[in-house]
Amino acid sequence: MSTTTASTGRAMPVRLAGLGSHLPKKVVTNDDLAKTLDTNDEWIRTRTGIRERRVLPADWATSDLAVAAAREALADANMTIDDIDTILVATTTPDHTIPGTAPIVAAKLGTEAGAFDVNAACSGFLYGLRVGSSMVATGDEAILVIGAEALTRIVDPGDRSVAILFGDGAGAAVLVPDETAGLGPFDLGADGRDPSMLWTEAGGTRTPVDESVLSAKTNMLTMRGGDVYRHAVARMTASSKSVIERAGLSVDDIDLFIGHQANIRILEAVGHRLGVPGERTHITVDRHGNTSAASVPLALADARDAGRLQPGDTVLLTAFGAGLTWGSCLLRWQVSESAADRPATNASGGSA
Ligand code: UT7
Q1: In a domain, 351, yes or no
Q2: By CB count within 10 A, which of 168, 247, 262, 339 is most buried?
Q3: Tens digit of pLDDT for each residue in 115-157?
Q4: 130, 14 contact by CB (below 8 A)
């Protein structure tokens, strides 16, 4: 088996016409978790950089988060849902095993446009951007790519090794054709030889849910954190280097580095190996925790709202997750038409 990641195309004539995000209102701090778990704020902050995370309302599911972010992205693009040809939802926490979450999102947005899920775990938004860009480059007028997750629904709240890490949220982007723009090159990779590194062991077709599964909680997320950490650093570094080199650029050309927000130490390690200075790295893991496929679009929206993205900036996006999967791309930042009207708010403000 080859251990090098495959290049997957050149930059495509595609622009992000709109960007939206949604974070639930409910904030859970490290101190809140320490009330019921054998953990503490100091351990969580020093090991992960996380200070707090958001948790979705009891009557919400992943599709509700996705719809809220999608509405914001459409408004940002000055578009309506009728302008959208296809909806991709990147998620590893679907509303149901069947059907996919994307058709539910489409119905809630009021369209019968094509809609399907992309499950590449925390790398899902990068995979979604890759597929969506190809659709735009081959004739579609507008594609909605959403990363949405309700991770807190699949972690055992009594398991301190994972319960402290994850949060809920969604981010969304509208992709449109633009000959003057460039999204890519992309690098996508996967190594599925040991899915047990980060998985829900039961609840799928290999081990359907029964009494023994429920009592052992093997339908909940588990992770061998140290192994995942090492792979995350190595894969995101190599994948990022691949897209920078194939674009004919150097690290000095990267204006902002937005990596998957799982652990601040991982982001620092990748930044260090790439040679990206800390001040050019955007961090949201402190406020969002790990939101899997939602983390990159949430961080991108947060960076925009913080005024960290200027027209013409080159942004490096990279992600890593269960599978294992990883993916990277370059994004040339362009201002959407409605940007001038946008109030200067912080993306952390949710409405649910
Ligand atoms: O989104 C997909 C990608 N995911 C990631 O990239 C996550 C990658 N992994 C990580 O971020 C880190 O491995 C963790 C944050 C999950 C764990 O950090 P670590 O430095 O690898 O800690 P550890 O698992 O080696 O645990 C160190 C100690 C252990 O105690 P002993 O055996 O040394 O006595 C754990 O039992 O910390 C203990 N521990 C905790 N203590 C307080 C584990 N979890 C906690 C906790 N609070 N929540």
Answers
A1: no
A2: 168
A3: 999 999 999 999 999 999 999 999 999 999 999 999 999 999 9
A4: no
Residue identifier of the C-alpha nearest atom 43 of ligand 1 = 161
Catalytic residue (choose from 30, 119, 122, 288): 122
The answer to whether residue 85 sits within a structural domain is yes
Of 215, 214, 239, 207, nearest in space to 321 by CA: 239
**Cβ atoms 84, 174 nearer than 8 A:** yes
Task: Give this prediction's pTM.
Answer: 0.94
pLDDT band at 338 (very low <50, low <70, confident <90, very high): low
Q: Could you read off the pLDDT of 249-288 as tens digits, one per residue?
A: 999 999 999 999 999 999 999 999 999 999 999 999 999 9
Find out whether the beta carbon of 34 lies less than 6 Å from any atom of ligand 1: no
CATH number of the domain residue 53 falls in: 3.40.47.10
Q: Is 122 noted as a catalytic residue in this protein?
A: yes
For ligand 1, say whether the CB of 151 is within 6 Å of any of its atoms.
no
The total number of structural domains in the chain stands at 1
Residues composing the chain? 352
Give which of 75, 80, 68, 81 is closest to 23, Cα–Cα.
68
Residue-number span of the structural domain to which 149 is assigned: 1-336
Query: Is residue 352 one of the residues assigned to a domain?
Result: no
